[in-house]
Amino acid sequence: MAHIHLEDGAFSFQWISIWWTLAIILICLCMYWMKNVKKSNDNKVLTIAGMCTAASFAIFQINIPLFGGVHMNLTPLIGILGGPAVGGIIVFIVNILSAAIGHGGWGMIGANTLVNITEVSVAYFTYRGLIKAKLSSFSRAGIATLAGLLLGNVTMIVIILVSGIQGVTQSRMDILYGLSLLAGVNMGVAVIEAVLTGYVVSYIRKIRPDMLSEAESLV
Amino acid sequence: MYEIDRKKSMLLFGFLVLAVAGLSLIAYHVSGHMGIEERFNSAVGIEPGPEEEESSGIFGFNIEGNPLYYAVILVVLIILCLIIYIKK
Question: What stretches pass through the bilayer (chain B) (predicted)?
Answer without folding.
Answer: 12-30, 68-86
